[in-house]
Design goal:
Metal Binding Protein, Guanine Nucleotide Exchange Factor, Chain A; 165 residues; alpha+beta; globular; 3-stranded antiparallel β-sheet; binds zinc ion; 6-stranded antiparallel β-sheet; 9 strands; 21% helix
Length: 165
């Protein structure tokens, strides 16, 4: 075994060892220097969220396309984080991307934070609620004008508040 092969082999073993040590449970949310105004333990989140909300918001699961009623929500109003009720998207920025997930070309100002997500062998931009850290979805660069962004959001990560009047 030459040195290069040895390094590759060793690296692979480390990855396997780390995965084994974690017990193959839910992937931990990526370590981040971010702090959030609203903090709860895993058990507390599990108690207040539905199973689907919990898996998405707290463990970055992705709902099946076309599974959320919010995908076809067309009324004027505000989409709120299902974890902490922070308004995160406006109906003004919603459009039909055809993907089966609620899609927006921008978030409400200061409502959503992003970080690099290199899971599933892809490099993507993850986005989450800036107040509770709940995972919302991903942001892609193939959206419409004026931003060119596509915020691809899990409908189960949000609730909808129709505009009054
Ligand atoms: Zn939130």
């Amino acid at each position: 075994m030459n040195r290069r092969n040895f390094l590759i082999y060793g690296g692979t073993l480390s990855v396997i060892a780390i995965a084994a040590a974690k017990g193959f449970s839910w992937p931990a949310q990526a370590a981040s220097a971010e702090t959030f105004e609203i903090k709860k333990t895993d058990a507390e989140w599990r108690a207040i969220l539905t199973d689907e909300q919990y898996r998405i918001l707290r463990h970055e699961d992705t709902e099946r396309p076309f599974s959320s009623a919010l995908n076809t929500e067309k009324r004027k109003g505000t989409f709120q984080c299902a974890g902490c009720a922070l308004p995160v998207y406006s109906s003004e920025a919603k459009y039909d991307s055809g993907t089966g997930w609620p899609s927006f070309w921008q978030s409400l100002p200061g409502a959503v934070a992003t970080r690099e997500d290199n899971s599933l062998f892809m490099s993507r931009t993850e986005c989450h609620c800036r107040r509770c850290g709940g995972h919302l979805g991903h942001v892609f660069d193939d959206g419409p004008a004026p931003t060119g962004k596509r915020h691809c959001i899990n409908g189960f990560a949000m609730t909808f508040a129709p505009a009054s009047a």
